[in-house]
Amino acid sequence: MEALTSRPIKSFRDLRVWQESYKLSIGTYKICEKFPKHEQYGLASQMTRASVSVCSNIAEGFGRKGAREKDQFYAIANGSLTELENQLLIACGIGYIDKPMLERMTNQCNTVHKMLSGLQKANSKR
């Protein structure tokens, strides 16, 4: 579990992986605002829900006591992150986002994947 500074980790907000997944979620919302109105309850809704699920499950996992419980929520976060990556590819494929935006968002997803993997490994050593 990495913190942005050398402060002790007291809250899920201190986790760098949560901070990066929060940025990903905000970015997803900003992208989806530009989607056609008919996508409000379609792809845009699925993408925002998946992105919120990532940071929410990291937060909920942090709040759990047992390593097994924590890992369950971190695994759900990982699944939602993969779901979001797929949805970003679809959004690009149908022309809602361009390739540079897809690359930026995919890079952010990869960053979160790596950090989440590190968090899961640290949790398994508890």
Rg from Cα = 15 Å
N-to-C series of helices and strands: HHHH
E-strand count? 0
> What low-confidence regions span 5 or more consecutive residues with pLDDT below 50?
1-5
Task: Give a quick rundown of the structure.
About 70% of the residues lie in helices and about 0% in strands. It has helices at about 15-30, 45-65, 65-95, 100-125.
Describe what this molecule looks like in 3D:
This protein is an all-alpha fold. It is built from four helices and no strands. Helix 1 (about 15-30) runs antiparallel to helix 2 (about 45-65), helix 2 (about 45-65) packs antiparallel against helix 3 (about 65-95) and helix 3 (about 65-95) runs antiparallel to helix 4 (about 100-125). The protein is elongated. The N and C termini lie close together (about 10 Å).
SSE order and pairing:
Blueprint: H1 16-32, H2 43-63, H3 67-93, H4 99-124
Helix pairs in contact: 1-2, 1-4, 2-3, 3-4
Identify the notable features of this structure and list them briefly.
single chain; 126 residues; mainly alpha; 0% strand
